[in-house]
Structures are given as C-alpha cells and as structure tokens.
Amino acid sequence: MTEDLRALLRSLPPDLPHPADRVERIKARAAARRRHRLVGLAAVAVVAVTVPVSVMLSARTAHGPAAVPAPLTCPNVYAGPAPWVPDGPRGVDGKSRLVPPQPPTRAVLCAYSGTNGDPQTGWLRDGSRVISGGLDRLAADLTLVSRRPGGPISCTLMGGAQVNYLLGLNYENGTLWVSASDEPNHCVATSNGRFTALDVSADLAAAYESGTWGQSPPPSAADRFPCTAQPTGRLGQEANLVPPGATSALICPEPMYGDGRSVTVTGADLIDLVEALNRLPTGPIGLGCVPTDDPPPTPRDYELLFRYPDGPGVLLRIMTGCQPSITNGNLAVVDAAPVADRIQHLVETG
Amino acid sequence: VEGDGFDHFVVARSPALLRTAWMLTGDAQLAEDLLQSALARAWPHWSRVQGDRSEAYVRRVMVRLHGAWWRRRWNGELPVAALPEPAAADAYAAADERAVLLGALSTLPRGQRQAVVLRYYEDLAEREVAQLMGCSVGTVKSQAAKGLARLRAALQPLHTMDGGQR
C-alpha cells in the first residue's frame, strides 16, 4: 500500500462531536444492559423450571437465538404524507399499543421541517439526536397513549410551520418507528404504522429540544393552567370516560380554567366522582359543541384532569351549555346534568 | 473496584476510538453509538481489563459489535452504483480523492472494510487485526488485499484524469 493512499485514508474522519456527558451515558447504558440481562436470566430460569425436558428437546432445533437489531438511523427524506413511518413494527407489539411497555434500549429522534401549506411529502431531514435519558419514562408515557378516534375529527385550519418527527426505537428483539407532527392545528395523527394515537408531538418536540425524555413543563405554565400542564390522552379512555387507576383529580373551573381556584380531589370523593362519571351513557366523540336548546341559567364549564402514577392523564372538558357536554378526547356524554352539581359542590367545598 | 480508571480512559481515548468507529460506520451518529455500546460492555469488566490491554479490549468489542450490527441491519446507507463524478480542477483534487475514497469505502463488504481500516488506518499488524476480527491472518491478508484493490480501482479514474491534464 502506498503511503499516499494511507495518508488519504487517515484524512477521512471529520471533526466529530464529543458529548460532555459521554461517561454518564455509557454507565447508564451499562446499567440498562445489566437490568435486561437479569430479566432475561430470570425468564430463562422460569422456563427451565416449568417447561418439560421433552418439550425443550423437541423445540431445540426449531428456533435460533433472537437477533439483536441494528440501531435505527434517520432516513434522509420523510417520504410520505404525515403520519408516515419508514417501516412497521418488527419483533414487538405495535398493534395494541403505540409502543411496547418495556423501555427501549435506544431512542433516536429525527426532525423534518416545512409548513402545513407545503406538499406533504419529500421533506428533507433537518437533524437528529439520540435521546440520552428517561427511556423508562418514555416507555411509560407512550405505551399508555390513547388510540385516536376513528371517525371524523374537527380541526382548525391555521397555516404555519410544521415539524414532522420520527422516533426510532430499538428493543432487544425488535424495532419500531413513531411519527408525530407538531403543527398549529394539533390535528395530525401519531402512528407507528399499525396503531394510530392522539397527538404526542409536544413530547417529541420537548425531547428533541432537550435530548432527554420527560422534561417538566415550565413552572409558570403549570401554575397558570394546571389542568393542561401535563400530557393527556390515556389508553383505555376509548372504553371508559375515566379509565381505572386514577390517583387524584384536579378540577379547573372557568374562566380560563386556571384562575387559582383549582381543586384537588382524592380518596372517597375521587372514587365517587369517577363512579358517577363512568355511569353516564357515552357515545363516540362528535365534531364540536352544539348549543343546547335549553341552556342552564348559569352555564358552568370545567376542565378535569385525572392523574395516574404513570403515563398520560385523562382530561375531561365539561361544557354544560353544549351538546355533547362532556368529552375525554375519545368518548362524549350528551348531558352533564347528573354530575354538574356534584362537581360544583367539590369546587365550592374544596 | 469496578470502573476504576474508566472515566479517565473514556476521556483520554474516546477521540481516537470514535474516529475508528467512524471509519467503520461512515456515520457520526452510528459511530458514537458504536463507541458507547462497546464501552458500556467493557465497563462492568474494567477491573480485569484495565491497563495496557484496555484499549485493545474495547477495540475488539467495537469491531465485533460492528460485525453484529452489519449482519443484522435492516436499513442504512446503500452502496451506490456510480461513484461521484471527479471534478477537473486541481485545486479540488484532494477533496475529490477523499470523497471518492469515502464512497468506495462505504461499498466494501464488512470484512474488507474492517481489514482495511484496522490494517491501514489503524496501522495494526496483521496478527493484531486477526485477533480483533476473530479470524486467521490469511483471511486478514486476503480481505485487506481485496479491499485495497477496490479502493484503488475507485481512485483510478481520478489519477488517469490528472495524468492526462498535466
């Protein structure tokens, strides 16, 4: 080999970035890897105890070891109208949930910018970043995101900037892409190619900005609008107005759903409130508010945020002068009268 | 003690290891990922591998991981049928050569790429390359020779053009 070719080879690597927290990232990876190995060993131990030897022998030649997939890399082009994903879920369940409940081994975020007036395909990649922390919380948040309603959805038609995000997730035995779009009308679905979910673009935008998952909203925003300060839209709210497991509820009355009079409900009051709400007859969500023929003398509007130990909360919007009067993003209740007095009582006594 | 001296090693040796990872992958993001994955595997065993053998150990893990990723990858960069057109101006000749060489490197099969990078970029002995790749010295020789031949073939049109102009 001539020296000139050798020198040419040595000149190839560009100036490469060096993250300041590389040591911490490596140790976090090592810890996550150790946890996965322990889980795997535990699973192997259970199988070894419970599966008869004859079954093991007969199955021994049927399956090889599971392949660890290569890290997903961002496509250069967002090649379809949003939501578009480069590939469907592989080796993991993407049909019943947006993402599996277990934390991914790696997460990469890709961003593609344009406007919602542009042709909606062929956007070039702006950038990408590997999410370096909070992967446990990422799984907890996204695995419980609610399915998007199947019927027509009313959307505003504001023009403006749009960022299509692709979240590439690697697991021990599979991969999965999630697409979400941050645009002025918040009306583009989130999808993994099999499961279509409510919009999670705000979470992805925050993660892209910070490089980690699960940054808290600014305290000022949380203080002013406490009922909408956290992600909402929880898996299970397609079946129940308030899915089981809520640990508290926050009632934010109009005006502005946040003038300092919000009330927290827990314990027996919470149980009673959830039961009362879930007794109401529900139907699919409609296209917005139709004023009632016989409006109440004093219309009372509220936002109710139900919180859970993990994952997104559930946000009920209650407008007593509308039909439907209550919506949770998936289900609607025509008449809020059976619970309106109870909620107002909680506000006044809280 | 687990991890003793590890932080210092990462700070001191990451730049060089990252460049090697980039030569193997051709992508800054994948290179960082490859480096971190290799170091994450090495860290729990650091008390046994630290010292003179530590860098060789990390490098071996990196090369083996690269091989595993290559075998299992589902998408990534695609080899191009035609290499970039060489420009005529002498002022850009070096940049042209680098671009062509980089393109050609990305089209090499995994074994040839590893052999070329470790033997001629890292300047390791054939025996060391064989240990890192987990193959025989004969395989290293043949893989490196085939890889070099393809790189030379890719650069040949540029040299022919230069010769014709000068």
Summarize the structure.
Chain A is an alpha+beta fold. Chain A is 27% helix and 22% strand.
| Radius of gyration of chain A, taken over Cα atoms and rounded to an integer in Å | 24 Å
Question: With helices defined by DSSP (H or I, 4 residues minimum), what is the helix count of chain B?
Answer: 8
What is the terminal-to-terminal distance of chain B? 63 Å
Shape assignment of chain B: globular
DSSP strand tally of chain A: 16
Class inferred from helices and paired strands of chain A: alpha+beta
Q: Pairing-aware structural class of the strands and helices of chain B?
A: mainly alpha
Which bin fits the share of residues in helices of chain B?
A: over 70%
Q: What does the overall shape of chain A look like?
A: elongated
Distance N to C terminus of chain A: 82 Å
Oligomeric grouping of the chains: heterodimer
The neighbouring-strand order within the major sheet of chain A is 9-8-12-13-15-16-10
The arrangement of helices and strands of chain A along the chain is HHHEEEHEEEEHHEEHEEEEEEEH
Mean pLDDT of chain B: 77
**Chain pair forming the biggest interface:** A-B, 40 and 47 residues
Q: Largest sheet of chain B, described in full?
A: none
Range of helix content of chain A: 25-40%
Would you identify the regions of chain A where 5 or more consecutive residues have pLDDT less than 50?
43-65
The share of residues in extended strands of chain A comes to: 15-25%
Walk me through the structure.
The complex is a heterodimer of chains A (350) and B (166). With 350 residues, chain A is α+β, with helices and mostly antiparallel strands. Chain A has eight helices and 16 strands. In chain A, the strands form four sheets. A seven-stranded antiparallel beta sheet of chain A has the order 9-8-12-13-15-16-10. In chain A, helix 7 runs antiparallel to helix 8 (337-349). Residues 43-65 of chain A have low confidence and may be disordered. With 166 residues, chain B is mainly α. In chain B, 73% of the residues lie in helices and 0% in strands. Chain B contains eight helices and no strands. Chain B has helices at residues 6-25, 28-42, 46-49, 54-72, 93-107, 110-121, 126-133, 137-165. Chain B is globular. Chain B starts with 5 loop residues before the first helix and ends with a helix. At the A-B interface, helix 1 and helix 2 of A face helix 1, helix 2, helix 4, helix 5 and helix 6 of B.
